[in-house]
Design brief:
The protein folds into four domains: about 5-225, Rossmann fold (3-Layer(aba) Sandwich); about 230-295, no CATH class; about 295-475, no CATH class; about 480-584. The strands form four sheets. It has a seven-stranded mixed β-sheet, with helices on both faces. Strands 12-13-14-15 form a four-stranded parallel β-sheet, with helices on one face. It is of the alpha/beta class. The chain has 27 helices and 15 strands. It comes from Hyalella azteca (Amphipod). InterPro entries: NACHT_NTPase, P-loop_NTPase.
Amino acid sequence: VNGKMAASGGFSPGGRDLAYYCYWVTTKGRRIANQRFQEYAKEDLLFDAGCVERLAVFHQLEVTSEEEKKNKLTLEQLFHSLKKGIAVISGVVGAGKTTLLMYLMLQFSGPQSAVPKHLQSFEIVVFIQCRDRDNKNLEEVVKVHFGVLSADMTAEDILLTLQQLRVLFLVDGFDERNEVSSAVLRELLDKTWHQDSRILITTCPRAAEDLKNLLRNKGKVSEEYKILQISELRRQLDFIEKYGIHLTMNGDAALAMRERFSKLNPQVQSLFTKPILLLYFCSIFKETPEKIDQWRSLNDMSMDRFELQKIVMKTKLSDIGVRDPDLLIDKLLGVIGKCALEFLAFDHVTFTSLEISIMKEQCGDKIRAHTSIVEVGTEVFLNTMLVVKKPLSGGKDTTYSFPHKSVQETVAANYVVRQMMLTEDTLQEILGVEPTKNKRLREVLLYVVAALSRDSPRHLTRRWGELKETLREAGVTARDVMDCVARCRPDHAGTVAELAALTEGKKWNVRNGRHVAVVPVLLRHGRPSRVVVHMKAAVLRGAPWGALVAVFKNLQVHLGPFVVAADVEAPTSPPKSAVNLLPQ
């Protein structure tokens, strides 16, 4: 360890030297931090599906560099490729960003002999969650990690010491940042760290530009990576079998889970490209396997996932003797759905202690109004809908947060649908935000359209004008429109396809058979600049290709990398006179 810090002044109260502090941080401090990291070793899965060991079920993710998009990198290769101090790792919702960082944290904090080579060069790991609202600065983050190492060593001393050590900072969920965690992140970027320290920051793509701007304003240079989706059937099946074994503790049951997924329609299989979606499959198969036969889209699965949450709650309420549990569940979902909507509008997923207290009070009022005979604690409901995290030893209050943004969006959409059916409030009044915030509620609005199509067509017809205008303000994309039309009942497809006019002149990416089926309907309302087909041959063969090209005329269709010429030379493939087949 060098003496840069001692030379810079302001360090070592009581005359202690830098070497003393470095010794304490890298020995006792590391032990304390590692013990606290191990509190994340187990994961309680959603819907009471079970508890698993994170390291045992981790599925090796692949990433790609923005500079070399064709090359897939393992985690080890990712670390070897890092040349700059900061790496930004982006991934869509449910891609496994948090899981990835926790995996690194648990690997580092395990037995020394088991620490992988690419982590051995670091002396300390610091984990920062952007959803955190408690720790207002880096000193408070340090206190949670290391506690009090010795009587005469303060959090400030530890922080100064970390600047001289090789530290791996894991910053989770930039897209979930708030005003408190943003201040912590700015402080992290303002400080000068050891040249061999690294900062890994995860984010959703929609917040990537904001992160780039922040780094640029701080004069920081970063490398960009993207988590690849799990698109190969073999990898999907391996993921399901691994979780199945640990969820059921039964090899035969795990194989049955794997076998059921392998027999799904290839078009449906191709939708399960994220770890979170594969986990939903496992949970639904375990509890209500018969519903899987009805799946034609992700929306079908999302609705079954939502119904599974209600089933879990109903079972708990029935077990303690609550009458009409469905009615009480609907009332409680109204409380949490409104809250989910407000949180989405302001990019929040975690409750403050005051917010959770208020929601518990509101839920308690609904419970007491429903039943005065049976005593029901709010935890029966909240523990099913939210993730409850005990603080790391030395941390502050227990935190409650929505388990995943997709769950949050489904619950919020359920609230919006009920309000649209039960009240005369305008959609904008129900959303409770200015139109400028509608972009953050785009997924909710798309769920609402599909839900009204399924559950109350007359309300979809009556509210269609304001739904369409709100989706325009939300910046609906071509893929959104294709997915939305595919989710709706066939007799509503023509109406919902009017959204295609909002994507006029944009490129349309056709990624599955459902998209192929709806594009002819969309072309009646909007014309893209071009259509790019990204489909595996097995899926393409079963897609209604003829109907699509019949309306294209001279529009160019670019075949994506999954398809080769031989794969489309089938009786149903488009004639060359009808469509130009241009390799991408």
